[in-house]
Amino acid sequence: MIRPSRRSVLGGSISLLFGWPAIAAETGGGAAPALPSDLAAAPEIDRWLRLSADGRVTLRTGKVELGQGVLTAYAQLCAEELDIHVSRIDVIAGDTRVCPRQGMTVGSFSIPEGGKAIRMVSAEMRQILIRLAAEKLSVPTAALDVRDGMVRTRDGRSVAYGSLAGGQTVQRRATGAVLPKARPRRVVGTSVARLDLPAKVRGAPAFLQDYRPVGMLHARMVRPPSAGARLLAVEIAPARAMPDVVTVVRDGDFLAVVAEREWSAVKAAAQLASDARWDTPPPLPADPIAWLKDAATQDTVIASTGTPPSAGTRLVRRSYSRPYLLHGSIGPSCAVAHFDGTALHLCTSSQGPFELAAVIAKLVGLPVDRVTAQHMQGAGCYGHNGADDATADAALIAMRLPGRPIRVQWSRQDEHRFEPFGAPMLIETEAHLDDRGNIMFWDYALRSPTHNARPVFGVGNLLAAPTLAQPTARPKTNNFGGPPAYAADRNAIPSYVFPGLRVTTRFVPESPVRTSSLRSLGAHGNVFAIESMMDECALAAGVDPLAYRLRHATDPRAQAVMQRACDAIDWSHPRPADRGCGMAYARYKNYAAYCAIAIEVEIREGEPVLVRATLAADAGEIVNPDGLRNQLEGGLLQSLSWARHEAVRFDGAGVASRDWRDYPILTIGEAPPVEVILIDRPDQPSLGAGEASQGPASAAFANAVARACGARVRNLPIDRAAIAAARVRA
Amino acid sequence: MTTALTVNGKRVAVTSTPDTPLLYVLRDELALNGAKYGCGAGQCGACTVLCDGRALRSCFVPVRTLAGRSITTIEGLRGPKGGLHRLQKAFLDQQAAQCGYCTAGMIMGAAALLREKPRPTEEDVRTALSANLCRCGTHNRIVHAVLRAAEAQHG
């Protein structure tokens, strides 16, 4: 099970001190191997694992559950190495008071990096328990075997983990000397059911939104019509006089109501909004891509080999774009903060509770050791959405009302208008083809504002910070990243081999609205552009798009996923008029999971209808196949939603995409059936896969539309109007 | 002033002001967490409950308009022997969730569908649940879970 941490977990432990020499020394071999980064940062075993007398194991992790199933996978890795059943494991995640700090839950690092740490610390714990058992049973460790937490001798004697060290803490540092065993896997590689779903299907409290501590008050924010508007005047008395209202908070342009009941807060916020006058900030661009084309840039060449051929080649020159996108969490951001007069505690669905607690300490002016945070699950966030901002809002209000937990719930309209958007991108590219149509030189330049403006890069990145009476300005944006993962330029270097190429990042430091990390960062726009371009080059060369890619891809694992996805959709089978198949491929971040997607589309009365999709992925060793399928298919459908429907629109009054009617997303009726093919490689390291399908899905869709109707849409989204316009051009 | 309702089979007199949407009554007064706030405008379905057996978006319907009605939330769904309802079981069997925030609304929307149409086609399920939004991309698993639950009903 996954449970919120309780302080009692810490109580009553007796330290277990070991007199043994270090394990590395005993094993006699040279220097201890390096610890995985997460474990090196917190090498004490008792930070990660506790054992109770009844044999239950508590696993603590700084990574958090975002709906991606990571805690179930972690319990599997722990169970595998400890040789216990998954059901004996309790997981505590993202509580800064008790969990090891592992960095934010981002970028598909949780399994490759965090998972490695959990595996290793569990393996070390197992070895300690085996040693204790060997002493107790007076046999050598080699004579012992473990089955579900029971250590057994060959002659039938046994002792349980719980009776060896239950209730005591293991005060040892991980050495890195005990490697995960190369024995038959029992739990890793199996589809263990998600630990958090039973509560969710019963409607039991499972989300931050369901948390109601005694004495809690409800707060609602009152936002300006457009970000950056200044509060000229506000009449507080009418809202303050409404039933249940405890107070109205105003700090500069930061405005909120606090009430005993939630609905009273909603009504008072509406009253306060009608009594507030704001100035009018500069209008937002009606055509964000046109704005992007002319925006000032900071240019960096991130890859360059060879030079463009001077003659004898054919040139294909194209440009592609994606608009501002919403994270669009189904549950608007929420947070609960409690200031007891001395210390501030935050309940948050942030991807980085440790980092956020430190930033909020600065925001509210408390020493960093007086601010703690505890992750509680929110609705899926898909990156840096409003969760951090809502936590800061709650903290600011809680500081004014010591002793009362303050719950801030953003409205749907505020979530749509004020979350940090996914950044728009404009890609200009040209390819030089030789006489056989092969790409000789590839010149690629992307324009984009930041994909990474998290609060960890500055207090001013919190929505509230620049609006306070003592404001903290938004910090300058930056294209935080660099090789090999990059940010705006993630996956801008193609996953193909070309004799010559140049890739240029034209970073746009100013954006009229705030942008930050959306699932896969720039990889979505870059893979959409590269894979659309590959199809356009294949068409120019008169070569089948699959064959064309296989020519330019040398990695057999890349070739395998492409072939499998296309085989599954009957790639070469002729389609009726108005139907077409498209494919796309990328290796996420150029070093994580390999993913190829094929999509069949029908153009029905001008509308693109998603007929079916196939996806093949190679993520190295698979921890939980069903979890991986769910993530890959989920990413595919989310990406199709982006590509089929989504664009944040602006009007004179600010963000015009205020709710789901203004910003439709893919419905259950529109979703195509998806076949997911996994290529398991138990002998290879696990590769991050949670974001691997975002890029290929949108590109495969665009390619399918082009094949179905002969009209190429290069600017997302691909809707009826875009197709009609492309047909006119074609 | 109170409003009399039946919630999950129990008669209750709720004290929230009559204009309070049912969702806030359920969550804040009755501590029933299953129905979720998603949009406050009946656009996303996260707040879906049953009202006299039919799907109702609880986030924007004032409680006064529901006096005397029978409300079922996901906490009130039961199987024949008191355990999980077949829809809840099917959602677990199919692992038909990622973040799970839309799940309760999906299950209640599906419960209303199965009540009206015990043997729905896949098309029926997709149409009925198209007004319930999922952002994680669990669309197909949800459809399969509902079809599986319908089979279980007749199996």
TrEMBL record, chain A:
Return the InterPro entries for the record. Ald_Oxase/Xan_DH_a/b, AldOxase/xan_DH_MoCoBD1, AldOxase/xan_DH_MoCoBD2, AldOxase/xan_DH_Mopterin-bd_sf, N-heterocyclic_Hydroxylase, OxRdtase_Mopterin-bd_su_IorB
Q: Which UniProt keywords apply?
A: Signal
SMART domains tied to this protein:
Ald_Xan_dh_C
Q: Does the keyword Cell division apply?
A: no
Which SUPFAM superfamilies does the record associate with it?
Molybdenum cofactor-binding domain (SSF56003)
* Pfam families (UniProt xref): MoCoBD_1 (PF02738), MoCoBD_2 (PF20256)
What is the top-level taxon of the source organism? Bacteria
Could you tell me which residue ranges the Aldehyde oxidase/xanthine dehydrogenase a/b hammerhead domain spans?
202-282
Q: Which residues form a coiled coil?
A: none
Task: Give start-end of the signal peptide.
Answer: 1-24
Q: Spell out the protein name for this chain.
A: CO/xanthine dehydrogenase Mo-binding subunit
What is the organism field in this record?
A: Sphingomonas vulcanisoli
TrEMBL record, chain B:
PROSITE patterns on file: 2FE2S_FER_1, 2FE2S_FER_2
**Which residue range or ranges hold the 2Fe-2S ferredoxin-type domain?**
1-77
Q: What is its EC number?
A: 1.17.2.1
Q: Name one GO molecular function term.
A: oxidoreductase activity
Gene3D superfamilies associated with the record: 3.10.20.30, [2Fe-2S]-binding domain
Q: Does the keyword Iron-sulfur apply?
A: yes
What CDD domains does the database record attribute to this sequence? fer2
Q: Which SUPFAM superfamilies match?
A: 2Fe-2S ferredoxin-like, CO dehydrogenase ISP C-domain like
- Which keywords appear in this protein's UniProt record, sorted alphabetically? 2Fe-2S, Iron, Iron-sulfur, Metal-binding, Oxidoreductase
Name the top EC class: oxidoreductase
Q: What is this protein called?
A: Nicotinate dehydrogenase subunit A
- Lineage per the UniProt record: Bacteria, Pseudomonadati, Pseudomonadota, Alphaproteobacteria, Sphingomonadales
